[in-house]
Design goal:
Elements: H1 2-5, H2 13-26, H3 32-44, H4 48-61, H5 66-78, H6 82-95, H7 100-112, H8 116-129, H9 134-146, H10 150-158, H11 167-179, H12 183-196, H13 202-213, H14 217-230, H15 235-248, H16 251-264, H17 269-282, H18 286-299, H19 304-316, H20 320-333, H21 338-350, H22 354-365, H23 374-384
Helix pairs in contact: 2-3, 3-4, 3-5, 4-5, 5-6, 5-7, 6-7, 7-8, 8-9, 9-10, 10-11, 11-12, 11-13, 12-13, 13-14, 14-15, 15-16, 16-17, 17-18, 17-19, 18-19, 19-20, 19-21, 20-21, 21-22, 21-23, 22-23
Length: 386
């Protein structure tokens, strides 16, 4: 769960896109470096056609720029144009056979083709050329882990001399130790990452996650407070505090933490959804709940969880048509989700569609999930079956 939430910490790509577009507009030469960066951002957002336009313009200006040509290959791989990607890489590799970036891209191409053995060979060759590269280590150790060779992955990271290790090396070591169940060593690694680069920030969140997984609530909250002391505008830290408080059953402190998250980061969809869900369950301040649920739904229109929350808020406000619309969307996307089915059943019950309510509750009870409303669903089904 927390690894997904950590994505909120990344800077907004829309802002970066705007910045590079302005740089290109005011630079008569077309600013190839900005076009390459812009193409990379478009690729991250899966705007492949836009990425292709920018990278072609960059290559026209600087045809020998390897980074531009490799990004062009990345777009081919994403579009599954494997023959085109291979042809371009063959030319690059012939010109620069010892370029680790070219070998790395070969690894990505082979991985995309499902050729994991060849992918690993190319990535390992690249790692031999850049043995201290944290990015290459991460990619190679990922394949080690997939092969069940976790000890081998740890050995690779530990083989990097201490004077060459960066914070990212220690973070990688921490994640591997954590996977191996060596929690104490993971904690030490994350603390070393913080010492190596106190401003980096990500190690703080990984350390929090390690404490949380161990059930050390006091320590996990302490780490979050340390983050907020350094950065009072960390919406992510406030959101995580809210989640911890909810797990403790401390609804009021959770509500305050989510509210604080939205105060410093108004577009935080996770905080908005969680606050809306919390208020809906309490049946209080439903207008705020509605506004928060709508923020989350707007930010992630494809997320069934956010649709379910919005539907449940509408239900609490007795707006049953809108509640039903959102609930049906949620269930259509996750037909086996017990909570979604329970909410759908309650909406049907409120609109006197008893047969539909009974069917939804039956599906919820028989979902095989241990969802938090299961006792309520069982009780509701008994009443509906009378």
């Amino acid at each position: 769960m927390y690894l997904e939430i950590l994505r909120e910490k990344k800077s907004k790509p829309e802002d970066a896109i705007s910045h590079y577009q302005k740089s290109i507009a005011v630079n008569n030469s077309g600013y190839p470096a900005a076009r390459i960066a812009l193409a990379g951002l478009f690729l991250e957002k899966n705007r492949l056609q836009d990425a292709r336009v920018e990278i072609r313009k960059a290559i026209e200006t600087q045809p020998n720029d390897v980074s531009a040509r490799l990004l062009d290959v990345s777009i081919d791989v994403t579009e599954k144009k494997f023959p085109e990607a291979e042809q371009k890489l063959t030319v690059l590799l012939k010109a620069q056979p010892q370029n680790p970036d070219v070998l790395r891209q070969w690894g990505f191409l082979e991985a995309a083709r499902g050729r994991s053995v060849d992918a690993k060979k190319n990535l390992e060759r690249a790692l031999e050329l850049q043995p201290t590269s944290a990015d290459l280590l991460r990619e190679v150790t990922k394949l080690d882990v997939e092969e069940g060779k976790l000890d081998r992955a740890i050995q690779r990271v530990n083989a990097v001399p201490d004077d060459k290790k960066q914070a990212s090396h220690y973070e990688l070591a921490g994640s591997l130790y954590s996977k191996a169940g060596r929690s104490h060593e993971a904690e030490i690694a994350y603390r070393k990452a913080r010492e190596k680069d106190p401003a980096r920030g990500t190690a703080d969140f990984y350390l929090f996650q390690e404490y949380d997984q161990r059930g050390q609530t006091a320590e996990s909250l302490q780490v979050l407070d340390e983050i907020l002391k350094k950065n009072p505008s960390s919406g992510l830290a406030f959101t995580l505090k809210g989640i911890v408080f909810e797990k403790q059953g401390n609804a009021e402190q959770a509500r305050q933490a989510y509210s604080d998250a939205l105060r410093v980061q108004p577009d935080s969809d996770i905080a908005a959804n969680n606050l809306a869900c919390l208020l809906a369950e309490q049946g209080r301040d439903l207008q705020t709940a509605l506004q928060s649920a709508q923020i989350a739904r707007k930010r992630r229109p494809d997320a069934p969880t956010y649709a379910d929350t919005l539907g449940w808020v509408h239900y609490k406000m007795m707006d049953y048509p809108n509640a039903l619309e959102q609930a049906l969307f949620a269930v259509s996307n996750e037909p086996g989700n017990g909570t979604f089915l329970y909410h759908l059943g309650k909406i049907y019950e409120a609109t006197y569609k008893i047969d539909d309510a009974r069917k939804a509750m039956t599906r919820a009870v028989n979902s095989g999930q241990d969802f938090k409303e299961i006792a309520l669903a069982q009780s509701a089904l008994k009443e509906l079956s009378k």
